[in-house]
């Protein structure tokens, strides 16, 4: 019992030390900036692809609305609506280029943070590193689209099946209750792939699980926590005016970036520990 307590205390102290040593706050601010740059180009791509995929734009926004603070969600909806009202034939290509470039910069920032966590330098060439970042970006976009399509078809199929047995109302209640579980599973898969592929270290897939689990739970809890705080105890719109929504968005992105990078530090800790025990 005492040994377990000492291990937990040592782990927490080490993580606290690594936060300062690897400048996680600074890297999180950098990553939040790239997240902001890639958010709206990504939404442009998804909205422009709507005529070709069976996803209403409200379903796309619903995924973000599930976690984002209220003021942030209003800002995203307003900005996206203004962009889409002036869309042109070249908007899709602009959105794709902007998303891939901005998001791949974000992936590069994540790679640098993970390499620092593992105490390794980036030995891959610029072309390989950028190509990997672009592939990860494209892969995450497809996973995001799949995450949107699956619930839509899953719900429709479930309603059809359960209607035959007269339990459609029960199915809808269960579906709404456990939808967060599906979101958590998808997030876990995304984080696992990111933690496994991005660092310049040969890793087994399962070595990415601790950080992926932490990032999934941490991101969901922090998103709901920030949303609850902003909605009940603070009103940035009153304090800062129209820019308040941007401030809340940046805080949300910063917290998200901090959790992602800290998940990489956790994976690095367990990887080094396992190798030292071999």
TrEMBL record:
<feature type="transmembrane region" description="Helical">
    <location>
        <begin position="31"/>
        <end position="53"/>
    </location>
</feature>
<keyword id="KW-0472">Membrane</keyword>
<feature type="transmembrane region" description="Helical">
    <location>
        <begin position="91"/>
        <end position="111"/>
    </location>
</feature>
<keyword id="KW-1133">Transmembrane helix</keyword>
<keyword id="KW-0812">Transmembrane</keyword>
<protein>
    <submittedName>
        <fullName>YihY/virulence factor BrkB family protein</fullName>
    </submittedName>
</protein>
<dbReference type="Pfam" id="PF03631">
    <property type="entry name" value="Virul_fac_BrkB"/>
</dbReference>
<feature type="transmembrane region" description="Helical">
    <location>
        <begin position="132"/>
        <end position="154"/>
    </location>
</feature>
<keyword id="KW-1003">Cell membrane</keyword>
<feature type="transmembrane region" description="Helical">
    <location>
        <begin position="174"/>
        <end position="197"/>
    </location>
</feature>
<feature type="transmembrane region" description="Helical">
    <location>
        <begin position="209"/>
        <end position="230"/>
    </location>
</feature>
<feature type="transmembrane region" description="Helical">
    <location>
        <begin position="242"/>
        <end position="263"/>
    </location>
</feature>
<dbReference type="InterPro" id="IPR017039">
    <property type="entry name" value="Virul_fac_BrkB"/>
</dbReference>
């Amino acid at each position: 019992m005492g040994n377990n307590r000492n291990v937990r205390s040592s782990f927490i102290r080490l993580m606290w030390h690594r936060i300062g040593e690897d400048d996680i706050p600074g890297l999180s601010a950098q990553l939040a900036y790239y997240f902001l740059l890639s958010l709206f180009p990504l939404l442009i791509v998804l909205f422009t692809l709507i005529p070709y995929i069976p996803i209403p734009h409200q379903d796309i926004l619903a995924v973000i609305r599930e976690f984002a603070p209220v003021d942030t969600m209003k800002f995203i909806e307003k900005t996206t609506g203004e962009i889409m009202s002036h869309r042109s034939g070249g908007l899709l290509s602009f959105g794709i280029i902007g998303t891939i470039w901005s998001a791949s910069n974000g992936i590069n920032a994540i790679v640098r943070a993970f390499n620092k966590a593992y105490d390794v330098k980036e030995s891959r060439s610029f072309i390989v590193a950028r190509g990997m970042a672009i592939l990860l970006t494209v892969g995450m976009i497809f996973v995001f689209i799949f995450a949107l399509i699956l619930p839509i078809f899953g719900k429709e199929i479930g309603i059809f099946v359960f209607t035959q047995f007269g339990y459609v109302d029960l199915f809808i209640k269960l579906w709404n209750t456990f939808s967060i579980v599906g979101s958590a599973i998808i997030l876990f898969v995304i984080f696992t792939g990111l933690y496994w592929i991005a660092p310049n270290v040969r890793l087994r897939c399962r070595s990415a699980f601790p950080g992926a689990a932490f990032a999934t739970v941490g991101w969901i809890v922090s998103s709901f926590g920030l949303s609850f705080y902003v909605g009940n105890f603070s009103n940035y719109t009153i304090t800062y005016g129209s820019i308040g929504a941007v401030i809340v968005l940046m805080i949300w992105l910063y917290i998200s970036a901090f959790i992602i990078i800290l998940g990489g530090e956790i994976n690095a800790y367990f990887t080094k520990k396992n190798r030292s025990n071999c």
